[in-house]
Amino acid sequence: MSGRLPLLRWQACQAIDRKAGEVRLRFVSACSGQEAVHQAKRTEAQAYLAAFAVDPEAVPGPHLAAEAVRRAMSAEDLAEEVLAASAAWLLGEHSPAIEAERVGGKADVRAAADAPGIADALADCLAALEEIVP
């Protein structure tokens, strides 16, 4: 059985990563390229607000400009909204909790001495991740 422990650990760690990804989807969009778009909007929002503070005629980046027109709002309001949403995700309780449980659960799996220990560590981690809800 000890020869199977590396495989069991790997499978458990993969299950933890999958579950963490599923839990993140409760809070963020999951379409191709969306993370890059969120980063671009965050960067544009920071740059625009810094420029707008010294020049009210500052021009927003392309993502902000297009979305502000589509949503019939000012680029300034949108930039503030983008940064607030980003901070809520990155600095709020959910993203850190998911990441801490993902990394901690995998450490517990790696530290387990035998198959039942791996199974227990996996079950504990999956249960903790499942409890993270909006």
Topology at a glance:
Blueprint: H1 5-24, H2 34-54, H3 62-70, H4 75-91, H5 94-111, H6 115-130
Structural class: mainly alpha
Q: Give the mean pLDDT.
A: 95
Report low-confidence residues grouped into runs of 5 or more.
Answer: none
- Total domains, how many? 1
Distance between the termini: 40 Å
Strand content: under 5%
Task: Characterize the overall form.
Answer: elongated
Number of strands: 0
Order of helices and strands: HHHHHH
How would you describe what is shown here?
The chain starts with a helix and ends with a helix. Helix content is 75%, strand content 0%. It is elongated, with a radius of gyration of 21 Å. The chain has 134 residues and is mostly helical. It has one domain (2-130). The protein has six helices and no strands.
